[in-house]
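Lab notebook, design round three. We kept the backbone fixed and only want residue identities now. Task for the bench partner: fill in a sequence for the structure below.
Input structure tokens:
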């Protein structure tokens, strides 16, 4: 059955029960016309029916929309949008507006029109005091019917549907009970006021007996309406309290178990964090030691780099000197080759001189022969020719020696050229080795620079890591204190949950 159908049955039932309840006091006690309770109720019933129908027309789209959202939420809670939730809450809040207006107007016009209808029929004159009493009674019954409708439909049925699909709603059932109690007391007082009004209007013989009878009937009706009202509301409240107490008991059991586990876990975590704190303390000291070592390595790397720079400069200077020696040696080789050319020229001159000496020797020999054949006249010429021949022989012997010396000089110059060229090759090899060594020094210097830069970066990183380790160490200490406090709190919560569980088991 839909919520709207339940609401329709309930509003018809409460309205007409309230109307007939009021007519018992109005026609039974005030006007003493019991037959009119059922026989003359058409105007009142008609007015109330029209107002109930008007109320249902207003409530129907509200409850239909509410039921559509509830059905959608029951199929899939994830399908509910924010607009659906807002619309559902709007329907929940707007539900009782039409009921309040309908009950108030219905009972004021329907049941409260009794004195006006009686005066219009000419049965009794219109009395303002009685009219006011009847209207106050009608307001009380109307408000009581409104309270029952709102409690059963809105606070119980609609709120239960909303909770079923996970929508939070505040259902203050105790407030409804207090309102119902106050309304019942107010209504009972107003109902019992009709008894002395009857005695004032209809005194005489048998007044006391009527008072007793009316009092018993009125008190019984008031007790009946109070009992019905309280049974409806209190039974729902008890059911809700039982459901809440069962849920509370289950949740407190779970909470007790969870807090025990949390307490045990927090103790283990506290011990683990303490170990971590100790480890981080050792790590911080280790980081400081690493920082010191890295500083030392950085110093050594910078010294190595400086030494490589000095060695590279010395190697460059040595290589420059080798190049200068090579150039000087090349000049020497050129000069030796030039000297060798000049020696070859001397050799040509010596050959010419040797030829001249040979010719002179031949000429001297011929002259000597001619002088011998000339006799005494050629004696002096013979001496001169002999001396010239001897001089030629000496020149030829000297030329032989000069040739030997020149040969030795040429041999020495050739050897010197070979040695110089060999030295040049060695100097070239030395230059190549020095160049390769310079490249090696450059690589070593680059590596030294990279090493020095890397060690500085490592030193910076170690410094940052040391600072971070110290911060982590401080944070872990704070976490350790927090876990200790949490462990104490969970122990207290565990004790409290045990107490709540005892309380819940007694509900």
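Proposed sequence:
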């Amino acid at each position: 059955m839909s919520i709207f159908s339940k609401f329709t049955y309930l509003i018809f039932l409460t309205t007409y029960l309230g109307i007939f309840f009021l007519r018992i006091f109005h026609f039974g006690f005030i006007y003493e016309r019991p037959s009119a309770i059922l026989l003359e109720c058409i105007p009142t019933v008609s007015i109330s029916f029209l107002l109930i129908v008007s109320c249902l027309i207003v409530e129907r789209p509200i409850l239909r929309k509410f039921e559509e959202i509830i059905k959608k939420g029951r199929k899939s809670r994830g399908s509910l949008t924010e607009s659906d939730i807002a619309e559902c809450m709007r329907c929940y809040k707007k539900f009782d507006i039409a009921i309040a207006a309908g009950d108030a107007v219905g009972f004021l016009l329907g049941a409260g029109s009794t004195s006006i209808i009686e005066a219009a029929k000419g049965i009794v004159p219109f009395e303002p005091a009685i009219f006011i009493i009847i209207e106050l009674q009608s307001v009380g019954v109307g408000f009581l019917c409104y309270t029952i409708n709102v409690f059963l439909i809105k606070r119980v049925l609609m709120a239960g549907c909303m909770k079923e699909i996970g929508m939070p709603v505040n259902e203050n059932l105790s407030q409804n009970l207090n309102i119902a109690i106050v309304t019942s007391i107010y209504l009972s007082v107003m109902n019992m006021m009709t008894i002395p009004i009857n005695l004032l209007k209809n005194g005489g013989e048998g007044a006391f007996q009527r008072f007793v009878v009316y009092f018993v009937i009125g008190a019984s009706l008031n007790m009946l309406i109070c009992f019905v009202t309280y049974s409806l509301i209190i039974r729902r409240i008890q059911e809700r309290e039982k459901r809440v107490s069962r849920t509370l008991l289950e949740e407190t059991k779970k909470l007790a178990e969870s807090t025990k586990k949390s307490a045990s876990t927090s103790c283990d975590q506290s011990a683990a964090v303490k170990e971590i704190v100790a480890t981080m303390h050792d790590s911080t000291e280790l980081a400081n030691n690493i920082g010191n070592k890295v500083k030392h390595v950085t110093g050594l790397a910078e010294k190595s780099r400086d030494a490589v720079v000095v060695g590279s400069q010395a190697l460059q200077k040595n290589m420059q000197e080798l190049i200068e020696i090579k150039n000087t040696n090349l000049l020497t080789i050129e000069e030796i080759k030039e000297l060798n050319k000049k020696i070859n020229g001397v050799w040509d001159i010596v050959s010419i001189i040797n030829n001249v000496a040979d010719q002179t020797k031949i000429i001297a020999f011929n002259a000597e022969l001619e002088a011998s054949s000339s006799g005494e006249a050629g004696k002096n010429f013979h001496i001169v020719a002999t001396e010239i021949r001897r001089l030629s022989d000496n020149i030829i012997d000297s030329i032989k020696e000069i040739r030997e010396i020149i040969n030795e000089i040429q041999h020495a110059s050739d050897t010197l050229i070979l040695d110089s060229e060999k030295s040049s090759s060695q100097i070239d090899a030395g230059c190549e080795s020095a160049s390769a060594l310079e490249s090696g020094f450059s690589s070593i210097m680059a590596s030294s620079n990279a090493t020095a830069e890397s060690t500085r970066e490592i030193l910076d990183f170690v410094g940052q890591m040391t600072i971070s380790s110290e911060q982590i160490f401080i944070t872990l200490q704070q976490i350790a204190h927090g876990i200790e406090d949490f462990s104490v709190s969970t122990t207290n919560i565990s004790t409290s949950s045990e107490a709540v569980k005892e309380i819940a088991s007694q509900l």
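Keep this in mind before ordering anything: The mean pLDDT is 75.
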